[in-house]
Write the structure tokens for this entry.
Amino acid sequence: MSFGTRRTIPIIITFLAGMVMFTEYFFKVPFVSDAATMLMNFGIVIAAFALGLGAANLLIIHGRHIRKRTPRQWYFSAWMFIVMFAFIIIGVGYTVNAPAYVWLFENTLTPVSTTTYSLLAFFIASAAYRAFRFRTSEGALLLISGVILMLGNIPIVSISIPAIADLAAWINRVPTMAGLRAILIGAAVGTIVLGIRTYLGQEKGYMGGE
Amino acid sequence: MSNKEKTLLDKLQTIDPRIVYGLLIVALIAPLLSPLGLPLKITPVVQKFYQTVESLKPGEIVFYSFEFGAGDYPEAEGAGIAVKRHLFAKGVKIVFSTTNDQAVLVLLKSLQSAGIPPDKKYGVDWAFLGYIPGAETAIAALATDMHATAKTDHYGTPIEQLPLMKQVRSIKDVSLLIVEGGGTETPTKFVRQWYAPYKVRYLQICISVVGPTLEPFVGAGQIIAMVVGASGGAQYELLIKRPGIAVAGMDAQAFGHVLVIMFIIIGNAAYFASKRGRR
């Protein structure tokens, strides 16, 4: 297959798939909807395969670390192998509803994830104390709005001084929302441009090209 | 200003993080061991969430996408449990689903904590479609044809055999969408794939850090209302008159916030005092 054909066929497939999804989203034509449903199911199957691909990738990377006895790494890789295979064997062999799998999940992943997330409270407390200083006008804005939002989150404060709760709600509703909307709209416009370029074959990054 | 005073001010600006951590542990644990029962205010947004669920009629279909992983789930655990209890009490039919592989067992734990009423039968009053890979593609596909997207439920039963799923084919059969968790990304996908084309009524439960990032969707009316974090959960528990884990944690959260604010004040006071001293 020539280089040109290798490029042209994926571009045509992308264009047709894109047009089907575009038409289905905006016009709801019955036979186009059926085609769109089929394409989406393809996507779900491909995503399921991607999980397997991710697992295979992990095995290759960590298998290399174990083989080469990478200092201060290989035993973590070996442990990753043990945990991964324990989950795979129990999950595939006995299903994810099996007591053994549930026990493994609730006694390994759950406490580790929860602990990691909980540590944020301590880091944020320490970071807020060190970073929230009245050094510049921008820093002052951040400091004041941060403190107002924290006060607004304390129930007794919001009941005793309703103005603080109202101010906290206003910060969320007006300046925060305005900033986030600007980001969202900017990202949406960028996505539309990227989509059009992809449909027209001008964006070739997904094929591994420049 | 003497050297000794300068040293003290400098120290107040650079308190050892271990002291901050230690005091925070005390501020969080003490109220949990000895709750003060500080009063709570019901915010309009939580009230709106409650009223939307309250307006559902028995037998209406709620599609409940549970997206929390094990790590962030505890912060909104109270909210999720309270909302599920409310839904079961209303007699609506609930279809659970997830696009997060880790969320499957977390949802089952949450349902266990909520306590499914004995008269609610699996397959008739509620069903769980399990984990559906494909993220936004899966969300879009569920809207158009749930039976083509999830052939079997979480337990391997073909969904055509579930009496509830005979009533639910696509988003057109759904009265309300509730998404629990999913960071900022998953709710955005639901807005794009469920709200924008079908105008589905949509409620969101999320953790505190995600709440502000979803405000634009609430402001635009795409998400009707949100229950945010432990605070939102505590309010919802009070609304359904079943105080639970979130109400219990509110004193600890309040003390934690007060401590952080105190540290900020101390740091700034010392900073200004030392600056004035240097002049």
